[in-house]
């Protein structure tokens, strides 16, 4: 079953008088959405009681939960201490996922900094492998770690790098951020054929069956020569990519991903727009 939802809380959620994230599952279900990505991107600070409450509400309203781990994770840092802290941040996020009964956490891998790209990827693979072993020992083995394709040229996270990381363990699910691919490639996703090429690459790397259930981020993104600059909304049509080009590919390939919208301030509204586009094409 394909699922659509936002990353974080739309401005309208607060404008309507809501204050707490545990209210999001019911709010999203009333809109017709069925996924929600809770953000720990600035740090894992949520209390267990709050996480459990969000999880209970999500279960009640059939909202699929994922959690975004802290942005400052750096699995390819030259400093061993930072690599060790990165393992802890991932494990802390997994603990929250356990409380919340979320099944996926989204993880950034870090930046290349001044190191060789091959060294960075090999180091990240080693750190991720050790993290998976620690996660299994802690009882988190049923929660998928989902490394994300990143949007800036200096970040570890090209599509190819993420797919190589996913080959470490069959439980690793890639987070395919199509806006990031578009921005990093300086505007490469402009047609259905362009998206077919991305899906082909994913299937060739991890197999068609695993590719069916990938985790996705989608939003329009402004970019510079360095890649991603800022996220925009679906109404900002001067920026790509267009979901109208991806939806037919998902339907033809019989894919059932979780698609999380990261539009600026209107992530729930644009997630609903994606759902309507998808259902409109599928019904033809």
Task: Describe the SSE topology.
Elements: E1 3-6, H1 11-15, H2 24-31, E2 35-39, H3 48-60, E3 64-68, H4 80-100, E4 104-107, H5 117-137, E5 144-147, H6 159-166, E6 175-177, H7 178-184, H8 192-206, H9 208-211, E7 215-218, E8 220-224, E9 227-232, H10 243-252, E10 258-261, H11 267-282
Parallel strand pairs: 1-10, 2-3, 3-4, 4-5, 6-7, 7-10
Antiparallel strand pairs: 8-9
Helix pairs in contact: 3-4, 4-5, 6-8, 8-10, 10-11
Question: Keyphrases for this structure?
Answer:
single chain; 284 residues; alpha/beta; TIM Barrel; four-stranded parallel beta sheet; 15% strand; globular
Count of β-strands:
10
Side-by-side strand order of the widest sheet: 1-10-7-6
* Largest beta-sheet details: 4 strands, parallel
Structural class: alpha/beta
Distance between the termini: 19 Å
* CATH architectural category: Alpha-Beta Barrel
Radius of gyration: 18 Å
Percent of residues in helices: 40-55%
CATH fold descriptor: TIM Barrel
Net shape: globular
Number of helices: 11
Could you spell the SSE succession in H and E letters? EHHEHEHEHEHEHHHEEEHEH
CATH superfamily, called what? Divalent-metal-dependent TIM barrel enzymes
Poorly predicted segments: none
Strand content: 15-25%
Total count of domains: 1
Mean pLDDT, to the nearest integer, reads 97
Task: Specify the CATH class.
Answer: Alpha Beta
